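**User:** My hope is that you can spare some time for a protein that puzzles me. As I understand it, each token names a local backbone shape. I would be glad if you read both lines and explained how they fit together. The protein I mean follows directly.
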Amino acid sequence: MKTAMIKIGVAALLCASAAFGAFAQEFTRRVVNKVDAKAKKVTIKHEDLKSLDMPAMTMVFRVEDPALLDKLKEGTNIEFVAQRVNGKLTVTEVK
């Protein structure tokens, strides 16, 4: 009985952490200033990044997925998700 209760508790924690992760994926709007495909980096003038507790500014982000670079053109308005990946600010989603 105790083992079943522990398994249920662990399952509930895993579900809660997965749900929290889904809410952390907040898209931010702004403009692409520069794309450096060779270095896999993009400069974006962005609004507040609430999930990273960062004010609006212009900064360089890494892009790990080369397919995302096709969506990033200088002067284009985008919506994106940025996260810390291995300690580096990284664009993980673009729409």
Notes: The chain has two helices and five strands. Residues 2-24 form the longest helix (23 residues). Residues 9-23 have pLDDT under 50 and may be disordered.
